Amino acid sequence: MPTIRDIMGFHNVDRLVYEKLIMHRTPLVLARDIVCLFMWLDQMTAIDVARSILSIRNPSAIVSLVNEAEGILNYLQQDVDNTNSFHDFPCLTSLLNRCIDTSFFDIHKEQLQKSLMHKLNGVGRVIFYDPYYEILHAYDTSVKIAEQDVSRRGRMPMIPACPTELTRPYRFPPEIAAPEDDKSIFINPLAEGGMVDFA
């Protein structure tokens, strides 16, 4: 079964996008929702959305992207029939190299809503939880210090054990089922139950 640290490693780029949005003064809750939206788009388009966003250096482009993503999230929350309310999203269209407009989200609305809830209540409890990253940073620092000590003294390193907070198994909340199209894909084989838990 994957550990908390496994989840952090697998979703490292998503965490970096989250931190980038925070640096651009995106509210915390909105930043979480946007990252989950980007994760879904990554799965739907087979394009590495997160890495594409990390490559953006223009602050105004980030702001425009955040505004579009917020518009999509607000659009999804409307209960009325949206078929006559058309909007396009030029930043996302450019980023994904395909037309992204409200009709795209109308088609996938129910699936996307379920996916966002699934991610927020699943891996979101790990990748948006700052104390885990503080623990990991402290651990990585201690490992580097131990390795530097080895290079100076020429002896076997005394690598500290990974904190138990990060080595415990990651368990997805049992009351929330993973949507069929919302499974993560792995190179290393895992048991079927592990794949669902890891999504």
Shape: elongated
Structural class: mainly alpha
Spans where pLDDT lies below 50 across 5 or more residues = 174-199
What share of residues is helical?
55-70%
Please tell me the total number of domains.
2
Strand content: under 5%
What distance separates the N and C termini?
12 Å
The helix-strand sequence is: HHHHHHHHHHHH
Number of strands: 0
- The number of helical runs is 12
Mean pLDDT: 82
Largest sheet: none
| Rg, Å, rounded | 19 Å
Summarize the structure.
Helix content is 64%, strand content 0%. It has helices spanning 4-10, 12-23, 28-45, 49-54, 59-77, 90-96, 102-107, 109-121, 124-127, 130-153, 164-167, 192-198.
Topology:
Blueprint: H1 4-10, H2 12-23, H3 28-45, H4 49-54, H5 59-77, H6 90-96, H7 102-107, H8 109-121, H9 124-127, H10 130-153, H11 164-167, H12 192-198
Describe the fold and architecture.
This protein is mainly α and 199 residues long. It has 2 domains: 4-128 and 166-193, no CATH class; 131-162, no CATH class. It has helices at residues 4-10, 12-23, 28-45, 49-54, 59-77, 90-96, 102-107, 109-121, 124-127, 130-153, 164-167, 192-198. Helix 2 crosses helix 3 and helix 3 (28-45) packs across helix 8 (109-121). The longest helix is centred in the C-terminal third of the chain and has 24 residues, at 130-153. Residues 174-199 have low confidence and may be disordered.
